[in-house]
Write a structure and sequence with these properties.
By secondary structure, the chain is α/β, with parallel strands linked by helices. The chain folds into 2 domains: about 220 residues, DHBP synthase (Alpha-Beta Complex), CATH 3.90.870; about 90 residues, Threonylcarbamoyl-AMP synthase, C-terminal domain (Rossmann fold). It has 13 helices and 15 strands. α1 packs across α6. The protein binds threonylcarbamoyladenylate and magnesium ion.
């Protein structure tokens, strides 16, 4: 059920959370399915509603650095203050050694916890009003693109889940996830806060999650994500894109930057931007498109987060079993 963000509905959301329920909330990145971090049953409900594997940990959302300190091992408080102070509130999730009190349902048994302070005023006011940090994965069914509108959430999770409607998400891609070490940062999931920005603002070296050890520390990266029903093909030039659009009988959609749409008159076209990607993948399903031809021109190829999601959307479903 989609609810307007009135004062009454925000209080209702906080009441539902305090009573051990779950609520879908808008954030600036994508919508999240939230529960209080201390409610075991509500946390289990999140995994059940999403069909999420239990070995994939949840991000905890806070409305103050003070709240984050309560979740993070005291040994990492200095790093937390330093990095969070530069980027929060915003689309950056920080992974630290967890305090002993954090539920193993949230950490999925890892020794670390992922924490983020969202910028969205509705998310922050719900956290404040219910008086607890909220664990919240993206509010999609596992394996579906993350939801960037309340309607996407309802399409995936059904009418029983209460959804606070904050309109379309400003960013449209999930947060950058970064493991914070004492002497460096490791990017576990790229997002609109780039490696360069992390380097420039923290002065720390920033690495990709290259090793198996790093990736095992971020189980979400093992699963297939972001996938529509249609087969996604990545192409790297206009002529290659035309070949795939013309080849075979499949009903096809072209995804390209809006500036290039004029080249493809007469085709079904979608906007390839970080803001629109997930909505367009869902529109392709609504239009029963069988093949999505993505034109990764030079500009798109330089966009690490967009390319990361496109590669995952185009992976063979056999490779990995489900998304988050
Ligand atoms: O923008 C976002 O991050 C959105 C909004 C709702 O905040 N949330 C989101 O959550 O995308 P989710 O659960 O769909 O993705 C969380 C990612 C997963 O890849 C998960 O494995 C990783 O964060 N993660 C969570 N806890 C972790 C931890 N302790 N160590 C490493 N990775 C972790
Ligand atoms: Mg997700």
């Amino acid at each position: 059920m989609i609810l307007l963000p009135t004062v009454e509905n925000l209080s209702l959301a906080a009441d539902v959370l305090r009573g051990g329920g779950v609520i879908a909330i808008p954030t600036e990145t994508v919508y999240g399915l939230a529960a209080r971090i201390t409610d075991r049953v509500a946390l289990e409900t999140i995994f059940r509603i999403k069909g999420r594997p239990s070995d994939n940990p949840l991000i905890v959302h806070v409305s103050s650095i003070e709240q984050a300190r309560g979740l993070v091992s005291a040994l990492a408080h200095d790093s937390l203050e330093r990095v969070a102070g530069l980027f929060w509130p915003g689309p950056l999730t920080l992974v630290f050694p967890a305090a002993d009190t954090v539920s193993t349902i949230i950490t999925a048994g890892l020794s670390t916890v992922a924490v983020r302070m969202p910028q969205h005023p509705i998310a922050r006011s719900i956290i404040d009003e219910c008086g607890s940090p909220l664990a919240a994965p993206s509010a999609n069914k596992s394996g579906r693109p993350s939801p960037t509108t309340a309607q996407h959430v309802e399409a995936d999770l059904g009418p029983e889940v209460r959804i606070i409607d904050g309109g379309p998400c400003r960013v449209g891609l999930e947060s950058t996830v970064v493991r914070v070490m004492s002497d460096k940062l490791i990017v576990l999931r790229p997002g609109i806060i780039t490696m360069q920005e992390l380097r420039d603002r923290t002065g720390l070296p920033v690495d990709h999650a290259g090793t198996a050890e790093d990736l095992n520390g971020s189980p979400g990266t093992r699963y297939r994500h972001y996938a529509p029903n249609a087969h996604v093909v990545l192409t790297y030039s206009i002529s290659e894109a035309f070949n795939f659009l013309a080849g075979g009988d499949a009903r096809a959609m072209l995804l390209a930057r809006p500036e290039l749409h004029a080249e493809f008159q007469g085709q079904i076209v979608g906007s390839l931007t970080e803001h629109d990607l997930y909505a367009e993948l869902r529109r392709a399903d609504d239009l029963h498109v069988e093949r999505i031809v993505v034109l990764c021109d030079g500009t798109v190829q330089c966009h690490e987060a967009l390319m990361n999601r496109l590669r995952k959307a185009s992976q063979d479903g056999n490779e990995q079993d489900s998304g988050t």
